């Protein structure tokens, strides 16, 4: 009868565990963590400093800031009346064109990430700028709406955005594929630079044949800012503080190049991040505030590192923990007594022998009394340990273990709620 009880409990627990595991995988593919997960992740990441890979060498990266290179252009009324309603600042496309022409001429850069919007506004430099971009290799342009991007550079362009539960929420998860099937910019870079591939399956997503997720929390291997408004290296104490490695498009690159003070050799073999690197395009992340191009670049690095692929041992560990929790949950339903489990009896026998041996080695008087007292304490400790191994405790330990080792955040609220509801039903039935 006992064997049947254990068999039934094991099968029911396994079925429940598989359902919860499938739900966990579905949750990982969601675009956000529903708020309560954000605080957990931020605290864990900052406490362990796991969000930064200190072995990463940033010397091969050149961030180029366009925030201080703006021009005013006429702004047409939204009602399409043709009436000029004022002016609006956009990135100086003449300087951007000169910079890209310099890079194209030498053709010695690693690749370029250009987070500059070309949607909605036209200038006299656009035709030459777009044709230059179209003729360059390994250049990727970010946009907000792919349908509004000029056709000539559309194959170089991809949307770059993330989903937040509500306005003002920090950046947490990066969607690799949008609901309509278009790749996010980091995924497009990975596909073209590294030959990566993510496909939709009826049961989920695969990356080069391995089970993966479409939305994940990227590790920040590269960062510009350490904290809000501060940089690792600063050289502008009287203005906006920015890293000394950051180059301003006009003052530090184009103007000096035009005057012959620098050559294009500086960018040979470099990864070039072009965009607004100031507070104008800043996002709250687990690695402090970071500008948009840095967020995209870290998402790409995460793909190269395979962070979106969930290791098999993670699935196995989650399934095991859920199964153990379920067994504890259903122990009353199937009249299972935890104290009768053979493995616990084996532990108790081992402890008994150890205590007896310790008393002999130390020549203790009253060995039987010592043994009796020690075993009572051990049994009490074992009972407390079993009581603490509730589903909530195991789930919390699971969450911490998995995040620290793989970077995957396991939501425990849903599973804990399910277990609590089932436990309430069982207790009422008893």
How would you summarize this macromolecular structure in one to three sentences?
44% of the residues lie in helices and 16% in strands.
List its traits.
430 residues; alpha/beta; six-stranded parallel β-sheet; three-stranded antiparallel β-sheet; 12 helices; 44% helix
Descriptive account of the structure:
- α3 crosses α6 and α9 runs antiparallel to α10.
- About 3% of the residues have low confidence.
- The protein has 12 helices and 17 strands.
- It is α/β, with parallel strands linked by helices.
- Helix content is 44%, strand content 16%.
- A 6-stranded parallel beta sheet has the order 6-5-4-15-1-14.
Query: Can you write the helix and strand succession as a string?
Result: HHEEEHEHEEEHEEEEEEEHEEEHHHHHH
> Mean pLDDT, nearest integer?
78
Secondary structure category: alpha/beta
Strand order within the widest beta sheet: 6-5-4-15-1-14
Number of strands: 17
Number of helices: 12
Question: Span between N and C termini?
Answer: 20 Å
Number of domains: 2
Uncertain runs = 49-53, 233-240
Layout of helices and strands:
Blueprint: H1 2-28, H2 36-48, E1 61-65, E2 70-76, E3 84-91, H3 93-106, E4 111-115, H4 126-135, E5 139-143, E6 157-159, E7 174-175, H5 185-194, E8 198-201, E9 204-207, E10 210-212, E11 215-216, E12 225-227, E13 230-231, E14 247-248, H6 249-258, E15 271-275, E16 282-285, E17 288-291, H7 292-305, H8 312-329, H9 342-361, H10 367-388, H11 391-406, H12 413-429
Parallel strand pairs: 1-14, 1-15, 4-5, 4-15, 5-6
Antiparallel strand pairs: 2-3, 7-11, 8-9, 9-10, 12-13, 16-17
Helix pairs in contact: 1-8, 3-4, 3-6, 5-7, 8-11, 8-12, 9-10
């Amino acid at each position: 009868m006992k064997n049947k009880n254990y068999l039934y409990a094991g099968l029911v627990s396994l079925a429940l565990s598989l359902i919860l595991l499938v739900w966990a995988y579905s949750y990982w593919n969601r675009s956000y963590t529903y708020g309560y997960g954000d605080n957990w992740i931020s605290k864990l990441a900052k406490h362990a400093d796991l969000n930064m890979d200190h072995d990463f060498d940033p010397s091969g990266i050149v961030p180029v800031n366009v925030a201080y290179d703006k021009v005013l252009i006429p702004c047409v009324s939204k009602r399409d009346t043709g009436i000029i309603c004022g002016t609006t600042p956009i990135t100086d496309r003449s300087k951007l064109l000169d910079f890209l022409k310099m890079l194209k001429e030498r053709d010695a850069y690693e690749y370029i990430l250009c987070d500059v919007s070309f949607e909605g506004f036209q200038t006299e430099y656009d035709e030459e700028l777009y044709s230059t971009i179209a003729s360059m290799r390994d250049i990727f342009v970010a946009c907000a709406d792919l349908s509004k991007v000029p056709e000539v550079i559309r194959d170089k362009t991809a949307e770059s955005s993330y989903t937040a539960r509500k306005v003002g929420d920090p950046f947490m998860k990066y969607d690799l594929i949008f609901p309509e099937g278009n790749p996010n910019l980091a995924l497009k870079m990975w596909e073209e630079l590294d030959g990566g591939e993510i496909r939709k399956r009826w049961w989920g997503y695969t990356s080069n044949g391995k089970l993966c997720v479409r939305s994940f929390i990227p590790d920040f291997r590269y960062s510009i800012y350490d904290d809000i408004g501060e940089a690792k290296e600063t050289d502008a104490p009287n203005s906006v503080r920015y890293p000394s490695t950051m180059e301003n498009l006009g003052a530090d690159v184009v103007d000096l190049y035009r005057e012959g003070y620098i050559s294009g050799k500086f960018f040979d073999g470099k990864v070039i991040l072009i965009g607004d690197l100031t507070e104008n395009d800043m996002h709250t992340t687990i690695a402090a505030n970071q500008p948009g191009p840095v967020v995209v670049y870290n998402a790409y690095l995460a793909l190269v590192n395979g962070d979106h692929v969930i290791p098999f041992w993670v699935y196995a560990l989650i399934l095991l923990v859920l199964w153990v929790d379920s067994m504890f949950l259903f122990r009353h339903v199937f009249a299972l007594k935890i104290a009768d489990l053979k493995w616990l009896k084996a532990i108790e026998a081992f402890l008994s022998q150890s205590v007896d041996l310790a008393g002999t080695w130390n020549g203790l008087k009253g060995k039987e009394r010592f043994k009796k007292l020690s075993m009572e304490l051990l049994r009490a400790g074992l009972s407390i340990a079993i009581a603490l191994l509730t589903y909530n405790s195991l789930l919390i330990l699971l969450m911490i273990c998995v995040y620290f080792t793989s970077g995957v955040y396991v939501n425990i609220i849903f599973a804990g709620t399910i277990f609590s509801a089932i436990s309430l039903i069982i207790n009422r039935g008893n």
